Structure prediction request, 91 residues.
Amino acid sequence: MRLLLSVFLPLAVQLLGFGLVFAVSRGSGSFVGLLALGLAVLAVPLTTLVTWARARRVPPAPTGRLLITGLLFALTWPLLLLLLRAIEPSL
Prediction:
């Protein structure tokens, strides 16, 4: 259960975040969707590896802290892309 919460929940949230970025930038001629695709290829396995390694470490960290840090790490990339999408028209 600990592994499920600390690894797969941040992974699912990150995939939903990248899906939101794809949906927001689709059809508007934006390059943010293309950037999100390339970044997702790198960020999703990296996030999974980092959260899995943190969940398996000895001595174990509390599950709540693992979950919060995993979610923050997972949401960093989609939020940065959404910020870039918001300021893109002014560039």
